## 1
Amino acid sequence: MSSFPVGKYARYKRATAYFLGWLVRAGSRDGDGKHFQLDTFDVVVNEIAAGRSTLTNKLLQELPRALTACQCAIHLREHVASFFPEHDEGQAGHQHFVQQLRNWHKILKGAAVGRPQTALQSESPDCDNYYEVLDVDDDYLPDEDSYLAKGGLPKTTTFDRNRLLEEAFANEMKMEVVCFFTELDELMQGVCKVYGEVKREERTLIEATVVAKLAVDSASALTAQLQLKYPAFRTSEDVYNVVRNIDPDKFRQRMATIHTKYLTDLQDSLLNGDEAIPYITGMFLVDFLSVGTTLASFLTALPMDSTKSIKFPTGCFGEVYNEDRTPHYVLLPDPSKTNVFLLQQLPLLHKTIMEKKITTGSAYDSSAPMDSFMLLMEKYFTTREVTVPLVFACICWMKSVAALQGDTGLGRNASLTFQHSTKLTRKIEATVATGSVRKAHKKSNDVLQLCADEIKRSSGLRYLSRANPLLAGLTMLDHHFKYLHMASEILLVTSRFRSFGHVYNALVKEGFLDHIPFLDDILEVYSEMIFTPSRGAAKRGSYYRTLLLSVDLRSSSVDAACRGEDLSAGNENFKKRKVFHLSDLSETYRLMVQNDKSGLKHASWASILDSAANICSKEIFDTRVLSRDLLKLNDKLANVYSELCRELKGGERIIEDVVSDQNQHQQKAEDGVIMVLLQILDTLQSNGGYGAPDLCKQAAAVVRKAFVTSAMVVDEKYFILPSQPDLVTQEYGYQSFKSRAADCNREKVFAELMSMLRNSNGPLTGSDLSYLKAKVKKDPELLEKTSTGTCTLENDTKDGGGLCTLFHQAAAGSAHDAELVEWMIQMGVLALQPTLHCRSKEVTCSNVRLPNAMAVHSAAMAGYEDIVQIILEADQFADLNTPTLHTKETLAHLAVKHGHRRLLNTLVWFGADLLVRDGRGRRVCDMAEDADWARDIAAYTAQSHRNIFNRTGNRESVLQEKERRRKLASVRRDEQDSNVPELSITKKPKKRSSKKKTKTSKGNTGQTTMPTGTTNSLFETKSHLLEGLRTLPRPSSSRCC
């Protein structure tokens, strides 16, 4: 088996060397002592075609493979030819060799060589174009070093292997780097494809994450292979320069053409309303330069001293990213645009990683597969190097955002990962509360509790995943796989699962129980785990024996036990059989956790990534190996066993008669009730007079009661993932918050929902919560309605803040609920909320009647730290320093005013401005009633701002770095390419939207166009964006109080 992955250049070398090796052996068959050079092969090929050569049977058999190898070499070399100059010496040699290969292939294929043409075609794969070449299995051709070995050739045959291949592998390093970038391009195309499928709800974020992680890991492996051969390639700049410098003019023209086509296709896609983000072949290099220079520029802002953090003035990069307000940040492949998104995201990543490293001594575990993205970022911040895997991962991140954004698609998919982790935590807590695992195996119970605690801790870092589907998906997969692994191990701690499978199988076969689809599916998937030697062996007369074999007893011990003999103590009675784990059932688990790629076909990257996605989809929705909740099943089986013991108590006399001669140790190990039932079922006819059928009917009734229910109930109880990939629609409905629904008693419904929330004593549950969600799904405009009775200056400025909307009530009212707040956010409430005027410095209408506080302000007054953080991070902290309308109090003012110290610490950590003053001129520290606390806040504020680096002192170094980066990215558009068509990011309204209401913030015209001034600076880094940073000492504590 060849190594994974096999690079394109390695394929080219294999194919070329195999074909030339075949020609060497064909030309030396008569032992005439030829000295082989490339020109010699012309004679060899012509002799074969003319029939003057008699090939051996082995050479005839290998001819189809040799022709395939020749085709592969031609197409692979032609594919990279566009990067090389047309008229230099190297290109001339390249064209000459390719033409030779074409001629040889044409002559050999047309000659037939004594074989029918159909035979040639049937024994070799199709390789008529580049993409068919990619689908040729990597193992179709043997390793290149074996092709031209002298063994087996006549002694008189002479050839210089290196000289023979010198022309074939001319410009090797350059060709290899070009092949390397084409592979990364194909990997990225696969990533974009799968995230587009998530947007269309053809797949879930789980499959997309599997594909993205496989792509990132493969890019890292390809990079490692390249660096092993060329150690000088340390950074992304080193590798990029090779491709750029092959032919700078041609490269510039190529990139400009790709960029123009992308903009044209993107605009067509958005205007047509299909929301598909195009991917143009070769696009990766455009993104590579954009992201690479952005990452390099950010390094100039990082303080060398790890004890210092960085802080950017609010708005220094433009408007805060939002998937519906600023989609162009990730859509336009222009450094001046992509810089904005990355530069807004990187500071929090840097702060989180470095503080974790300082606090714990180490940041992320290199052995944890799902930490791959954070490990790349940690290495970037620590080594201050921009590597190819880092750039690739960041492009994956941005492409995932571009594919999912719009109509809260990005936020909803991220939120579903949070919801899933919370669901897993609750399932673990419910199991721990029952004590079923603790009674069977205390250590497993402790591990379960640790897992729940770990998932809870990770919820505090969700702010990093809101605009990062790659990280959100990796975090979800980490939790998901840990849960499934533990559940699988716990289920096998006792023999309960296995023995129950035997009982169910016997009851069904003997007609006491009808087939139960849920249990039938389990027995089909876990058959090898449950039955030894097979399920077919478990039949009347052998039920009990098959169970004993399945619990690792030796055949001789089983025979003795069935004869009623006592088994001696010791291990000699047992035979260690294969222990089954989750990895035995799930290829996806093996791929993601154990890096086992043996299940993936070694072909094109497109087929490899598709294969990984399809395997994952099958395990989620078909076999449901990745969806079945074995922990819940384990809890249910514990209840079934207890119920069986109670129900069969009336048959105690029969049980005692049957069990009396059985081995007591085995009875304790396997649960006496199950063994008795199986023995009764084995001897059902002979023991029928003792009421045995009644016992079997009672047992069947217990099983039926436990598991016979509707498919919907089964899906809710025993599966942790739905049976269809439309997770977003299932949770949030199909109605877009941007569409305008008909007014179906909206006022009445709104008043009803407000009353429900006001009068609730705690979060809504059950039917009340379902009713509210159903109404909002049907009419999202309910979220922008205001209760006029509470919208007064008097109400808004008092402590309650005027809870005038459903969002206010959910955030700060008596029914305050973080999960309901999260759900409303994904229903579009942040764009619909009627308090957006708080963001405006000037309000043109009478502001007395406008609400004073946004929902986040009301939550801050109440001190609900979790809700405040959810609202802030969901909109990328756009309202961190937004003041209330009338009193001009920021969240920090309100936190101090109402004595919420933990909340203030959270706000400060995220960068709240403590110097801003409220409407009465008061600073944040002035709001504290506690004099000591006020002094602490004032001291912290003064210390932070005394240590700001002098911006002008760093100006020279920043400008020098800017110039260096400009030279790195010196490729610019020609003047003739400067007239790039403007891109209007305006989507065609969807058909289901009967009326569309346009919301525009100040200065926003409702569409975003690509500024004409940026068309000539496509590859120019914007390091000057970093000049406004502030560098602060990292405090020993994040607290300011």
## 2
Amino acid sequence: MSTFYFKTLILGDPDTIHFFVASAFNEPGEDKDTYFSWYKEVKVVENTCDLEIDAITSISADLDEIIQMVDGIIYFVNPLIKEEFELLEMVIPDIFSAKHDIPLIIIFYDQNGIIPVSVNDLLTKVWVNYPSLEAFVNLNPKEFHQVLQALCMAMISGETPLNIENAWMRFPIFIQMANVYYDNKNYFYAAQAVRKAALIAEIYKKEEYFIFSEQAAYLFSKINLYLEASNILNDIDKQKSRNFKKLYAEAIIREGNLSFNNQEFEKAASFYERAGQWASIELLEKEIIDEAFKLAITSWVSACKVEYAFRILENLPRMESIYLLKEVLVKIKAASEFLANSKRYNLAKEQLYLAINKYQSLTLFDELKELTTKLTEILIQIFKTQTSENELYAAKSTFDEIENMWESYDVERTDLDGTLKVLITSFLDKYNFGMATILINKLNFLVLKQDLTKLSAEVEDKFKAIKKKEIEENIKKGVKILSEFVKAELDIIVGMNNKKIHETEELMKQKKYLKGAKNLQEQAKFLKKIGKEDIMNRILIKSLDVLLEGYLYEEFFITFNDLSKDNKKRYLKEIFPIYLDKLRDINKLENYQRIDRVLESSNRVYRKQELYDESKEISFIFIENIKTEAIKTLQIEETLFGIKKANKLLKKARTISSAYLEKEDQISINFDRIYKEMAEISINEENLPSALKYNDKIEDRAIKSEIHKKIDKLEAEKSAIRTQRVDKAREGEELNERLSIIENRGREASGDRDIEFKRRKAYKRAYFNTALSHITNREFGEAIDIYKETITQLNKSQKYNLAGVSLAVISLLLIHENRLQEIKQILEETIGNLAGKLGRLFSGTFAVTLVEYNLQLKKFQEETKFEKALNFYKNLPLFEEELNLLRSLLGEEIAEIETGEKLTREEVGRLSRLSIELDQNFGKLQSEMEGEEAEKENLFRKRKAMKRRFYKPILDLLKLHKFKESATKYNELTKTFSKRGDFRSGSFLMLLHGLCSLKANEPYTLIIKNLDLYLNSLGRNKKLVSDTYNIRLIQVLINVKMNSLEQYLPKIKSMLEVLPLFEEEKQLLDLESK
């Protein structure tokens, strides 16, 4: 099984093709400005095709360029629109003219419905006029895979596309066209037509398949396409197929023979070599292989490219290589002789060196002797030619090669003294005595060697005399030129310096100090490069003045380091008064960190140059700036953290003082103002020890006294607070004692609750029905008034326990309305209206004791205990409406009150219609459920790959059961995927948003609103996304929930389980109402 990667193009009306392909793939594709793109995998028999499908949707796209880059094309055309047909006929020639064959399929399609034209007529028109094309008519988007499979088969096989489902209709057309082509002697097209007919016959298992295959092979062989003929018969007649392969190899050799006869040796060698290699793989017939390789070797030698011939020999057995080398020796020598006679000495030499290396490696010493002798002869020719043409160094190099041949390969020596004499004389003329001496030692005849040695000595003496005289004259001229040059150079430098200084002054007027300083520094670098260091220092000093004027201290220190050692100290002393004035204004800088760095660097620079008095002045300024910064810090950060920062600054100030100042100077420095600020902050923070510590450090008695008074005042306040805490602790103990009493009495009341409830129920119609009705209708004010009356009536009849329960219900209503003060007022009024003993009886009931306890808890703001105390109300004999009020205060679920009402006829009809609609929706979802389940694993892998980037924050929220926040995050993430064009993931996230919202008990209307906002944001993709499995599923779920149709929830849950959910998201599948 193989995988192929193809790029496919879709052409036609932009709206039509986008609608069709988006419907076929159930996704809108990725918008890439001039086209939409999809990536799909298509199975073809045992192969897989990974397709990039691009649908052109803009007329600005460059079709000429795009067509050259694709492997297959699908063209949509509406035959009812004449202009579309004409455009197709214009585009087809461009496709056919591409550098490679591009399979083309035409789809006749009308977006508005079925095309009212004969399908056979449309198909026949295409098949007859364009035999290499395939066509589909009235294709449904769901059947688009048929087109892709046909196109993929064509791209894999290199054949023209064929629709297998209607191939039987093309069979007679192919036969008819084959006959026409054959009559016109267009054998290639006839063979193609017959091959297509054979393919169709094979598909439909017709006996004519074998006949048509042999006919196609015969037609291909008529135009020497033996390989195509062999391939056709490969599975039908092995022997005939092999014969055609043999004919193919022989045809290649014949092509080589033609080229060899035309003296195109390289071309011939390529043919022979290709024939040999192909035969060694496909035929395995030694006779043809040996003949082809032998001819190839001979041709490469004839082409004077023995390296290619030797490359072939490397793949042959050793003995066979030796045999062939012996045969081609004569040709190699002849080729080198031919090159030498053509004055192509270097190529001749190169060919012989390659041959010598090859023959030597195979120990062919006799043949090697012939080759080295031939190479030496050619080298001697080259040596003589180079000497006569005065190519002295090349001739010397060639002579070294000749010597190497004599010594290494024992080639017979030749007398070259005559040529060497000419070469030596030429070197002496060039005054190259070293090379001449080396060559003199190579001479054979002693007399000649002595004569040339004497000549060399005379020429060398003459050369030395001439050189000495020339040097003396040059020195005289040089001194004069140098003095003139020095003067001219100084004039130029002065002019350049003046120009740079003028430019800098202009920049300073524009407040561009850094640019002006850089201008001078560049000039200083130039002066240093030419060795004018004295002038360089003067320019650098000018640059430092500019930087100081612009308060550019950092650049000042960097540039200062470039001054010479002698100039550094002198400059600092001269500039100090100005520098000190600048430092006094240093608080103009934007932040203290920079001030600190500048002052510290200034101190370091002056002390390094041993200018200690000047450093002391800088230290005073430094300490004052630190004090200012400390006060500023304390005023901004009036906290203990601010004091900590200020202490760090003071520590630095003291360090500078002790390091750089004398003792008498240190005494003059005062930090009272800072310590005062620290003491006041400590007082505000109620940190008395720190306040006392900083106050003790203040030297001014008036300030110290003022701070002492504030400390005393704070101490008095803290003493009062401690007293209050003791009182509160005592009251807390009393509350704990009362809680113990409440718990005991609560247990007693719980045991008597049923009896007391029967007593209250007996008075329900007389006293409580109206009040309970008001509670149900949330008319709490009216209910309170009625309960007040019941307290009076029940106290009169000495039903103190029941009266106390009414007071407890009033307290619950007033707590609900946040009117706690009124509880105390009603309690006091009720007890006041009763005589002393009767008031104590009423106050002693459990209900009244509980109300008083809750009032105390509210007084001391004991919220936790207050909420716990509300639970004791459950021990009272309360009616259901009163209990629901209590549950709402405790945040518990309120019990539903059964009304026993029946549905009206209209409501029954509405629910019936809704049920039918839901059943229809469930049918659609059920049909798509299998497809969703099949893609679950693939989609989960994609989600898992993006888990860290997109989903981790949401999953963390889900772990904490924060469903509302998770819903918001899913909604935001939906927008991200929609911008990327990934609407499938976007719709899935909207489903998760809906499930989280339901878990968070969000209103159904809000969920529906968010869903509508998402769909409306998609523009023309809204309809496509609205019909997806995910969107329809959440819409059905909301409908079911809104109408309390709980019987559908198990079915919806099973549909949700096929989705690619993370483990944290699976809790959202619990759809039961909360």
## 3
Amino acid sequence: MAIASKKTIIVDDSFTSRLLSQEFSIYYQASRALSFDEFKKSRHLLPYRSFNTPNYGFVQKGAWLYAKIENRSDISRWMLEIRFSQMQHAQVFITSQGTLIQYLNDGIQNKTSPYPLPSFELDLPSNTPLEMYIYIKSSSMVLVAPIYLHTDKAQRTQSMLDFSIWGVFYGVLLVLFVYAITFFAYKNRLIGAVYIVHLFIMLLFQLLWSGHTALLFDWINTLFLYVRAESMVIAMCISATLLNLLLVPSNMHRPKIRIMLRYLLYVNLLFFCAFLVPGFLPQIKLGITYALCFATLSINCAICINAFINDYFPARALLIGWASSIIGSSLSILFIFGILPNNPFHQHIFHFTLLVQTGIFLLAMVLRNQYNLELEVKEAESDALSNFDVIEEQNVRLDLARKEAIKASEIKSQFLANMSHEIRTPLNAIMGFSKELENNQNMLEREEHVRIINSAATDLLTVVNDILDLSKMEAGKLTLNTRPFSPRNLLEDVAALMSKTAHLKQLEFIFEIHELPHSLLGDAFKIKQLLINLLSNALKFTNYGYIKLSARVREQTQSHATLEFEIKDSGIGINQSDISKIFTAFQQLDDDLNRSFQGTGLGLVICKELVNFMGGKITVLSEPAQGSTFTASIGFGIDFSTKRLNKTRRFEDKTAYIIDDWNESSRASKLQLAALGFLTVTLKEVSQLKNYAIGNAYVFIFLPFRNLQNRNHVNKQRNEMRIVNTVFVYSGPEPNQLELDATLAPPKFIRMPLTSRKLKDLDTAAHKPNEGASHEHVKKLPAIRMLAVDDMALNLRLLQTWLKASPVILDVAYDGESAIERCTNTDYDLILMDIQMPDMDGLKTTRFIRKTELNIGTPIVAVTAHAMETEQQHFLDSGMDDFLSKPISINNVVALINTWCEQVPDSKQNAVINSAVTNSIDWETALKLCYHNHDSAIEFLDAFTHRLTTHAAQIESGLKQQRNDLVLASIHKLHGACCYTGVPRLQDFCQQAQNILKTHQDEILPETITFLLLEIDNIIEIWPKLRKSLLTSPH
């Protein structure tokens, strides 16, 4: 918690949905809750607090929240939502210039909105400063108020999502209820009845906590006002304990624990009744509730542990359920007391674990019946042994039935495990690459990520459809979906997916594809699953080195082709004695080296089953500490229905030089380039290109992760040799820090491995620089030397991209120390300084640069995200000359350079002065700046001319003291005032004087200051006469 200066909440066109809680000042109500008028009058006298998380603790009298807001968008209708359902009172007041323009009310005690959570439809007029007051109160619960502002569309989307999630939740409860009715009717009436009561109590709790009671009939909602969520938690503890007692046989209980649980039930029942009567403080009520809850969870866990030790296998499921409830309750407590941040996960984890436990109760009921059935079978076997001659045939039948049941259970378990693996594989790709899309600005890679996500989503949909096919699931069989597919496209999809994972582990990924048929007939989805599983296994057991995916045609006839897929790694390898175990379901290798890598043991089993299912063969060669090679040979039909396109002639007879010192990688790249028609030459180093006439040939320079330290050296060689068509093929971090030669065509960057998709746009016009209007201005920039300082390499890379076609020489530094070192040795015309940097920030760096001999007077511009006027003034007072607000644009950078680095020659100075506005006071401009308010314009000019004498005195005082810094500060303030009063000539003189002072053109400064002071005298003399005529003329 920290006191923070509050900014105005700006709502613009890019604004769709945003958390506003951190923007509000919080005023606790101590002795009594102030009314709106009382709070509005005394707000400036009251202490306020700010919170990083919207959790304000126990506040009996409620709290006021205050913030300023301005709507700069074209949308006037907004939805304000407080995402906490236990809010008894929530009131919103919006004022404009002290006048109340909107009042809204919602909450448990006075529900007015159609949403379960407190929601308010705001009407925010555009471009009007507003003040928002929110009063919130939750007397029976910790005050949690995450406040969101949505557009109408975003609100509908959020509501639809919320209702969908809760719909699934209540749907699951309904399914469990149907199962419980069945169980009650045919199995155990007592357990079924208690389970139904538990479901009903849980439903009541969810309706109370989620706020969905407000969506029911009014009379039902009124009844719920007298029942609180704490009472329902205790009721759930009682019903869950009764279920546990019924599900765990009494002979599995320790006597002392059973007695403790019995007394705890009485205590729970006592407090359940007590909480129905008002009077308890919320702190005490919550404390008692959670104490009873954890005591109940702990004792029930102890009972299940004791039963599990005694080989009562249904206790295993019960133990998982109680453990999940303990975890959910712990996280819920930490969330309610503000230790964990407010987010949907922490808000709903308790409800999710309750649902999990409720489902596990039903599973335990089924397992209990199975346990009892097995006991009966054992008793029957015992009876059969004692009466063998009588019931021998019956024993044989029972034994066969038991074996068939066990076998069916094993088949089902294995099938579900396989399906789980197939689901997680594409889901991992979707989640991973969607996260990459948030941060990656490279359009080629973003397009590739989208293709991968679409492909993985299609695979996931196929798996889900298979799961829903009950006939297939019951039979434990899969079917081949034979369709035409492109083997090269399939392999490139797999390479794009898995190479990213390999690079994250700092592994090289080699993609070696020989000539393949254009189109084959087969199940592309299962082929992809096979390759992904094999590659995932290789990645799992490889910590350094490389992963290789290769494919070639082993045999081919006119209508059939056998493809051989090879996955090779440099991992830990496998002992010969263990190779036979890796394809056996649920087998784990025993040696110590492999144990730390073990998972479910199903990945390679699935691979073998898929290969066998498709009529293929899979083999493995491996040596410990040398790596493994898995080879899968599968036959396919050749597709003649898809017309084969002619091989592209775009790169036919063009030469490609491959600079790669690793034979494995260069051989794979050579195959890829040859498939596109390139004539390839493979070299080890860039320096070897001196022996060749390169011309316009493409030069592919490989920058692998293992040679990260040599990147700058290789780039320097490229610059020295003037290589035109350069393609940097890299792995690991992006080579953003390379110092590119602006006189050469910009190189293309491709992430390894090379694929035909990545190379298809190699020579298209889309990769040429855009010659738009902004770039024309860039070319006309003055020839200066500029330094940019930023700890974010991406920002510096962006500047280099913008200015590469300009005469500007751009040096970059990634921290304050590097910037000081450069400024000590180099004279710069302009310095861009990032403020927020680790170790040494921009202000401290600026102070050191001001002490260097070469750059003591160089203009330094602060690049900052702080848009507040006080912050900007702080930067100017700290020695900086100007500021540039983030996010920056190319137009802002061009304007900044022209402002600070454009020289004003002596011969042009008088011409500029003489070309100024003829009239000293432009009344039309002054009127326009005041929105055509005649009286306001006169008032502004009155105040302005009144201060002119002071401004002139400050300027003359600075000149006498020979303090150009004081002169600049005075003129800077005067220039700001000129911008709002309609004095164009004086405004021009101020701008010219600032430019001269900032660029140290001292020889023409006196003349400009003289004109400026004369213009001040002229305005002081003219204004009274003009004012008189304006007052007497009609308007």
